[in-house]
Amino acid sequence: MYIIATASADTYITNKIVDGLRVEDANVGRAGTLDLFKLYDETMSGSSGGHTEISRLLLKFDVSRLVALSSGSLDVGSSNFRARIKLQSVATNLPVPQNFSISIFPLAKDFDEGFGRDVSSFTDIGACNYINSSNGTAWATSGAYRSGAVGDSNIDFYASGNLQDGLGLRNLASNQTFVAGNEDLFVDVSDVVSATIANLIPNYGFLVAFTSSQETDLVTRFVKRFASRHVTHESLRPRLEVSSNDATFDSHASSYFDTSGSLYLTNVVGSNIRNLMSASQDITGSNSLHVVLSTGSYTKVISASQQTVGGFKKQGSYFGNFFISAQDSSAVSGTVKISDHVAASGSIVFSETWRSIDGSVVFLSTFLTCSIPERTTSGLPSRQLSIKTTNARQKYDERSSYRIRVFAYDSNYEPAATRVPKPTKSDFPEAYYTIKDIEGNVYIPFERENGGTRLSFDSNGLFFDLYTDGLPPGKLMTVDYLVVDRQLEYIVEDKSVQFTVGA
C-alpha cells in the first residue's frame, strides 16, 4: 500500500528585519516557496549589529483518508509502516547554506495558512505569523518555539511524548542533515503519524527549523528554499508519503511442497464482504475455521483464522498457513505414501474443504495442486518476464482506490503441444509497481525497503491496490514494474497503460 497525503496548509514565519525595523506580523501563506534561513549580525535602526533573523516552516497534511483506512487495511502499528515528509528543493541563483541540519517536530497548536504573498518587503499582514498562530491566538512563545511533552498545555510543539507503545517517554524530533545544501528533505515521521492517526497526537501539523544549536550559533545560513503547495508544478508540492506492506500471497495459484504457503477465503454476499456464519453466529477471531486437505486416505487439517489489520478484524476474510513435506511418509492408498506419489508424478491434487470447527458446516469445496519446486543441475533457466496490466482504465476518480490486475508471462517459454488449447497461467515473480507522469516525475516509487508497492497474488494472478490520493488531476500517468526473478532485477514498462485522475 502506498498513499500520498497532500499538504492542506503550509507557510513560514519570520522575524525579518526590513528597512531597519523588525517585521513579525507578516504572513506569506500563499508564497510559492517555503524559505528556511538564518541571518546573523544584522543591524536595526538605532542600534548596531548583532541581531539575528530567523524563519521556521509550518506544514499540515490531510490524514483523514489514513484515519479511515486504519480500521480496515492500514496497520499503523506494523513494523513496516512508514510515513515520510517530502519537500522538494527549489533551485535559485542564490547561494545555499551547506552542512546544516533540520529538525521536525509535531505542532501542539493549529495554524491558519493565511493569504500573504509578499516575500520581499513582507507587507502582507495577517495570521499566521511570527507572533500569532491564527487570528486572535498567539504562539506560546514568539516564533512557535516553546516545547513540551504530549499532554502539556501552553506549548507550541511536542519535543517528547509517551505514544503508549511500551517505550515510555521519548524524543519526537526527526532530523536530516544537508551536506551540499541542495538536497530535498525526505525524513521519517512514522511514529508521529501513527500516533496522530491513533488520536494520541492532534493533527496540527509540523514545525520545521534549523536545529536549536544552529539557530543560536554565530553563522548565517541563507537561504534554503522548498516548493510550497502553491507552486504550479504538482510534482514539487509537499507531501506525506505513507506506505505499508499489505501484500498477500495466496497459494491457490502456485503451491509447493517443502515450502510454507497460505490459503485465503473471502466471503462475498452480493457486492458486500460479510463474515461466514455457523448456527446463526458470525465466525470471527483466531483458529475459528478448519481447512482440510485430503487425497485418498491422507488428510491434513489446517487451523484458519479471521484476518486482522492493526487489531481490527477484516470482515469476511480468512486465512490458514500450511506446510507439506515432499518426504511425508503418510499413506495415500495402501502402502503408497505421499513421498512415493510426489516422486512419481511431481505433484498432487488435494481436495480442499473449508469447514466449521465442529465439521458440521462446509463453506467451500475446491482443489489445491501442490508441486515439487523447480530443481535443476544446469543452473537457472533463462527467463524474460513480460508484465501487462489487464484491467487498466483511462481515467480514475480522485481520492479513490482500485484493484489493478496484472499478468506476467515468460516470453521465452514454449508450451508443449496439446490437442486442446490451454489458457496461459500467470507467473508469480517478486514484483513492485511505480506510478509516474509521462514527463518522468515519480509520484509513487518502487518501495522495496518495506514492501509498500509489492504486488500480491491470488488464484486470479498478480494485483495491487492503486490509491489515487495525491496524484495530480488531469496529468497523464503511466505504470512500470520492477521484477525480481531468479536473482535478476529489471524494469518492465507497460506502454499500453496511460491514465488520468479526476478532471
Can you give a write-up of this model?
The chain has 3 domains: 242 residues, no CATH class; 114 residues; 117 residues, Immunoglobulin-like, CATH 2.60.40. The mean pLDDT is 94. Strands 1, 4, 5, 6, 7, 13, 14, 15, 16 and 17 form a 10-stranded antiparallel β-sheet that branches. A 7-stranded mixed β-sheet has the order 18-30-29-24-25-26-19. A 4-stranded antiparallel β-sheet has the order 31-33-37-36, with no helix packed on it. The protein is elongated. It has 503 residues and is mostly beta strands.
Name some characteristics of this structure.
single chain; 503 residues; Immunoglobulin-like; 3 domains; ten-stranded antiparallel β-sheet; seven-stranded mixed β-sheet
Describe the structure concisely.
This protein has 503 residues and is mainly beta.
Strand-helix topology:
Blueprint: E1 2-14, E2 17-18, E3 21-22, E4 33-42, E5 51-61, H1 64-69, E6 82-87, E7 100-106, E8 132-134, E9 137-138, E10 147-149, E11 157-162, E12 169-171, E13 174-178, E14 185-188, H2 190-197, E15 206-210, H3 212-216, E16 221-227, E17 239-243, E18 255-256, E19 261-266, E20 268-269, E21 272-273, E22 277-278, E23 281-282, E24 289-295, E25 298-309, E26 312-322, E27 331-333, E28 336-337, H4 338-345, E29 347-355, E30 362-371, E31 385-389, E32 395-396, E33 401-410, E34 430-437, E35 442-444, E36 456-458, E37 461-467, E38 477-485, E39 488-493, E40 500-501
Parallel strand pairs: 10-11, 18-30, 32-40
Antiparallel strand pairs: 1-5, 1-17, 2-3, 4-5, 4-16, 5-15, 6-14, 6-17, 7-13, 7-15, 8-9, 11-12, 19-26, 20-21, 22-23, 24-25, 24-29, 25-26, 27-28, 29-30, 31-33, 33-37, 34-35, 34-38, 36-37, 38-39
